[in-house]
Amino acid sequence: MDKADRYLNRILRGTFLTGKEKAEWEAEMRTHINCSVEELEEEGLGREDALERTLRQFGDPGMLRRDLTRQTYGISMDIILQVSALLWAAFLFLYLQSQFRLYDSRLVLPLIPLTLQAAVLFMLTTRNRADRFGLLGAVLPYILLHVCLAIGIPEAVRWYDAVMNGYTPDWRSYQLFLSMMFLWGLVLLKGTKNTGVAALPLFLAFLYKGFDLCRSLNLHLFSALDRGVNSASRHEVLSHLEGVSIRLFALAVFLAVAHGYLQQQKSRPAGASRA
């Protein structure tokens, strides 16, 4: 691997671009480098000196990587990861507070930074303005839910329990919630043609249930250490595990449907789509 290869690898490493995008960027940058080296060689420089000067003129790989990701995602990848790290720290802080009952646990405050973190990380799947609007639309149902809980609407707590937990008696609301998120994802897919953005509503449903499972496991382990195995606690863990499995299955089905839809759109003749 020569200096040019190492230089390009430093630029493209950790950009979260697709393999195709990386190949296209690498080919374009390599062409510019080769042209510059050839021009300098014609002026009398040796191959190594020409390559060294060309790479210096190209600039710092870190700066180029930030410019590249800014062009791709609309925002620097460094900012995406930094904001995500701050939201993760906020989630851990609020989660630890909830364990000591420092606020009303019904407000599910740890899930707010977790929701925002997922949306920020899913920025790495975006490519244009439509994707970013779609990302906002993907988290909108969850934002409305948290607003209703924060305001203290009486029905909000019951509705949250019904749609987020499979073990509640309100099974129809539970089914309706997943169906609505599935359909909302299809609407986002049609508008953005981006599987990552469209899958976010169902991914958040999976993430919320995973949070409930982790919290339940935590309580179950402390209960087992303190008073021995509790059948009610164990049943709650199994119920959460069932909910996680159902949401994961719904997400997998959605991804398969989305992949088939996009493949059909790509294979459709241009004239047929205009018609």
Describe the structure using short key phrases:
275 residues, mainly alpha, 2 domains, 12 helices, elongated
Describe this structure as you would to a colleague.
There is one protein chain. By secondary structure, this protein is mainly α. The protein folds into two domains: 67 residues, no CATH class; 199 residues, no CATH class. It has twelve helices and no strands. It is elongated and about 80 Å long. The N and C termini lie far apart (50 Å).
- Helical segment count: 12
Please identify the oligomeric state: single chain
Q: From the helix content, strand content and strand pairing, which structural class follows? A: mainly alpha
* First-last Cα distance: 50 Å
Number of domains: 2
Apparent shape: elongated
Mean pLDDT: 83
Strand content: under 5%
Number of strands: 0
Largest sheet: none
Order of helices and strands: HHHHHHHHHHHH
Radius of gyration: 25 Å
Give unreliable regions as ranges. Answer: none
Helical fraction = over 70%
Topology:
Blueprint: H1 3-12, H2 19-42, H3 47-58, H4 61-73, H5 77-99, H6 111-121, H7 129-151, H8 154-164, H9 171-192, H10 195-227, H11 231-267, H12 270-274
